[in-house]
Amino acid sequence: MHVTCEVVGQDTHDLEVDPGATYGDVLAAVGLSTQEATVLVDGSPVPDDRPVDADAVRVLRLVQGG
Q1: 66 located within any domain
Q2: CA 1 to chain centre
Q3: For the sheet containing 37-41, what is the strand order?
Q4: What is the mean pLDDT of the chain?
Q5: C-alpha to C-alpha distance for 40 and 8, rounded to whole angstroms
Q6: In a domain, 43, yes or no
Q7: Is the C or the N end of the chain the one with fewer CB within 10 Å?
Q8: CATH number at residue 57
C-alpha cells in the first residue's frame, strides 16, 4: 500500500507499507518512535497499533531535541 507521510515542519515521505502494517510501522519507516510522535489521519490522532487504512497521513512530533 502506498502512503504519503508528511512529518509536520520537516519532510514528506512516499512509503510502501506491507498489508497489515500499523501506524507504528509508518512511524518507524520515517525514523520516529511511538513515544516521540503521533500519526494524524484527517486531523485526528490514531492509535499506533491500528492497521493503516489511509493513503495520506501527517506525523506530529511530540518530543524533539534533548
Answers
A1: no
A2: 14
A3: 12-16, 2-7, 56-61, 37-41, 44-46
A4: 94
A5: 10
A6: yes
A7: C
A8: 3.10.20.30
